Amino acid sequence: MPSVEPAVLAALQNIATRLRIESVRSTTEAGSGHPTTCCSAADLVAALFFVEMRYDPAEPQGVHNDRFVLSKGHAAPLLYAAWAEAGYVARTELMDLRKITSDLEGHPTPRLRFVDVATGSLGQGLAAGVGIALNARRIGSAHRTYVLLGDGEVAEGSVWEAASAASAYGLDSLCAIVDMNRLGQSSPTQLGHDLEQMAARWRAFGWHALTVDGHDMPAIIDALAAARATTGRPAVVIARTVKGKGISFTEDKNGWHGKPLKKGEELETALRELEAQLVDDGGTVLRPERPDAAPNGPPPPHERRAVAFTDYASGAMVATREAYGTALALLGDADDTVVALDADVKNSTFSERFEKGHPERFYQFYIAEQAMVGAAMGLASRGAIPFPSTFACFLTRAADFIRMAGISALDVKLAGSHAGVSIGEDGPSQMALEDLAMMRAVPGCAVVYPCDAVSAERLVVEMAYRPGPAYMRTSRPKTPVIYGAGETFPIGGSKVLRQSAADVATVVAAGVTVFEALRAYDELKAGGIDVRVIDLYSLQPVDEATLAAAARDTARFVTVEDHYAAGGLGDAVDSVVSPLGARVERLAVREIPRSGGPDELIDRFGISARRIVDAVRRGL
Fold it and tell me: What is the C-alpha to C-alpha distance for residues 19 and 38, in angstroms, rounded to an integer?
């Protein structure tokens, strides 16, 4: 184990004390925040940032920098103080904590260049760390990844999903640190200060677990060195700490979570006590050790690559889920930053086609959707273009991770298959009927829903190179190819499939209901009724110009979607055309469905060609 000079230990103690002082001062000035959780982890962060981690503080996004994820995001003031100590953040800026004019927010977001993923929804940081470590392996970098967790958040199941994945991949470049300060938000944590029981849990998941006094600086440094020396598996440092450390009236006291100190005597007493803990370090100045690798600039921007698309025959019957898998493999051939993640359904989503061509860039997370999406966040934060895919209904398990990916504005490209009642006999538990609403609610998230193989292939590539998160909904049934090889599908567009000057209504569909709309068109046309048919393959952003033109021409819409009525296609159309005075009748699944054949379910739950015809005729 390394020996540390007394002057270095003294300097580290002073850094930890300054981190506490700045955390207390900034939260008091803000009038909100979590100073006591910052105080418990200050010694750990000081040792990490000024002895253990290798990084260039002038270039926080350097590809070979060791990475740090603050999973316990409410300790943000501690993170900001550490970067001020490293010289990247001006100390004066710390007093702008939580102000609307400052990027030093209550919980960290990637508005700050030293933050890879937004944290603060507890239980997410370790999964992101798994993705960051996998990306280091992908690019051949020796950088390490450190994730600081609170002991309260370790109750989250997503932590153990990520722990299992890290062990399965033997991620020995990943180190978790558990700040075991005993106190949660409202009461003591499950294990209190029982370090051995906590360590036993991590060991059961295949981790090398080390326990340490989280305020003993030499012991912390030794534990981090032992973690670095661990091979073949990830390591975790479990640190016994005291919440509110350094301030006599907050130390190990319940009721201080999320409570800043008051200005006046309370603050002055705390600062006086903390300042008294500063020691003579002989003027020793500690600077982070930079990585050996060079160059160490940020990950390069994505460059759009040409993809050799499949030549589908008109009328060929191909499921969009299958076309998705084919397109993903073709995209992987063209761009080595593209990676794929699976949750044990690769043979149903057809992502196995990517795995066959690029096994080194395919990551299996088994039935752990939260870990899969969280790892995708970590991969995206470091320059990969990740495509995590599973059944669309199971993505709802990862809704909070998807929400945080949106807050992080990360290039996570989700795909959900087996959507809607059209999947047939498997029944309602397998039918995604809420997914479009969930994804459309994520700011900046593109939402696309192709109806045939050609549009699915093109949209996979459009998703890949559009900045920010994106979601593709794919279908189980085979559908006919209706588009030619020369068609383009920009996100935010649509396709007008049928149109005339005599149109009395506009039928808007997407995915499997496009074919119901086309059958309804034929029946209505035979009866002397003309309607416009639009394939609204992009639900977010939506093609406002085409919908507005249809509103001017027909003033009446029928939307039809294999989704519940709230938040999907109907709402997307209504938001554009209702302010223009158009009427919208929404055909959607309006009750909990049941098992049955796809065609009979589509009809029974109100979204078949027959139901479209009835709706159009009702309005005449």
Answer: 8
Please tell me the distance from the alpha carbon of residue 450 to that of residue 514, in angstroms, as a whole number.
9
Q: What is the CATH number of the domain that holds 476?
A: 3.40.50.970
Q: Which domain holds residue 546?
A: 495-618
Q: On the CB side of 338, how many CA atoms lie within 13 Å of its CA?
A: 26
Predicted TM-score (pTM) of this structure: 0.97
Q: For the chain, how many residues are written? A: 620
pLDDT, position 293: 80
* Residue 130 contacts residue 175 (beta carbons within 8 Å): no
Does 455 share its domain with 505?
A: no
Q: What is the pLDDT of residue 316?
A: 98
| Structural domain contains residue 560 | yes
Give yes or no for a contact between 571 and 597, defined as CB atoms under 8 angstroms apart. Answer: no
| Closest to 577 measured CA to CA, from 608, 517, 613, 532 | 532
In a domain, 301, yes or no: no
Mark the ranges of the chain whose per-residue pLDDT is less than 50: 1
Q: Residue 163 has what pLDDT?
A: 98
Q: How far apart are CA 221 and CA 218, in angstroms?
A: 5
Q: For residue 369, indicate whether it is catalytic.
A: yes
Q: How many domains does the chain have?
A: 3
First to last CA, the chain: 84
- The per-residue pLDDT for range 343-379, each reduced to its tens digit, is 999 999 999 999 999 999 999 999 999 999 999 999 9
Helices (H), 509-567: 513-526, 544-554
* Judgement on whether residues 387 and 431 belong to the same structural domain of the protein: yes
Other Cβ atoms within 10 Å of 528 Cβ, number: 7
Identify whether the C-beta of residue 285 lies closer than 8 Å to the C-beta of residue 86: no
CB within 8 Å of 199: residues ≥ 6 apart: 209, 210, 211, 236, 238
From the list 52, 156, 161, 369, the catalytic residue is 369
Measure the CA–CA gap between 207 and 258, rounded to whole angstroms.
Answer: 31
Paired tokens of 552: 């001017």
Orientation of helix 157-168 relative to helix 125-139, angle to 10°: 20
Q: Which residue type is seen at 82?
A: A
**Predicted local confidence at residue 506, as pLDDT:** 98
Dihedral class, residue 284 (left if φ above 0, else alpha if ψ from -120 to 50, else beta): beta
* Among the listed residues 316, 71, 327, the one whose alpha carbon sits nearest the alpha carbon of residue 174: 71
* Other beta carbons less than 10 A from residue 168's beta carbon: 16
Closest to 188 in 3D by CA, of 252, 247, 118: 252
